[in-house]
């Protein structure tokens, strides 16, 4: 296995490995911390008219409509908490992930191929725009040198949900669904074919890459989404069908993001 570099080819496979097929579906609960608090309702006093024959005070408390609370968003200090740990992801896949790596800035290296098709990879700095505030990329595998699974999770925070939604549409153009199935893209010295595009919408993009020149098909399964102020997703590389695994990993991230 080549040493891991901070480039898009980091999930390429050059060694044969055993396949573990167990996929454990793990439920999640939404946390109450790590998001901006909701403002509590307030009460004000209002001047009340005096009634003859009474000794009421000049004013009494009365409940008025409080201003709308600020929307809940994921804050930068909690970005790590929405991503699955090595132990959590390992349980989903039924294996032990001993090696990890991470980065706090998006990749800038170029992907070869038609522009729409080259966008179907880990989103680069140019795809994400300039409005994002916090970026996190986590990378897991069984060992540094050999593995049956390669897993990565990405989370990108924006100031508002509107900015995140706009960035998602820019990052994953819908036109790719019509023209990129079967297209070839190049990541440094590796060639990949976009073998399947399951969906590209305003908030979801799911596709599969097949690595060329492998005697046994080695695929990477991508699942990226937008929810609230977060653009997030995961990819899972393995032999066999990785859709159940990557879906569960991405569902777990989504469960920790407020509506």
Shape: globular
Structural class: alpha+beta
Taking the alpha carbons of the first and last residues, their distance comes to 41 Å
The H/E string reads: EEHEHHEEHHEEEEEH
CATH-scheme architecture of the domain at 75-255: 3-Layer(aba) Sandwich
Helix content: 10-25%
Remind me, CATH topology of the domain at 75-255?
Answer: Protein Transport Mog1p, Chain A
Report the radius of gyration as a whole number of Å.
24 Å
Strand percent estimate: 25-35%
Can you offer a commentary on this structure?
The chain has a domain at 75-255: Protein Transport Mog1p, Chain A (3-Layer(aba) Sandwich), CATH 3.40.1000. The strands form two sheets. The protein has an eight-stranded antiparallel sheet. A two-stranded antiparallel sheet has the order 1-2. It is α+β, with helices and mostly antiparallel strands. It has helices at 86-93, 115-118, 125-128, 161-171, 176-179, 243-255; strands at 43-47, 59-63, 99-103, 134-141, 150-157, 184-187, 190-200, 204-211, 219-227, 230-238. The protein is globular. 17% of the residues lie in helices and 28% in strands.
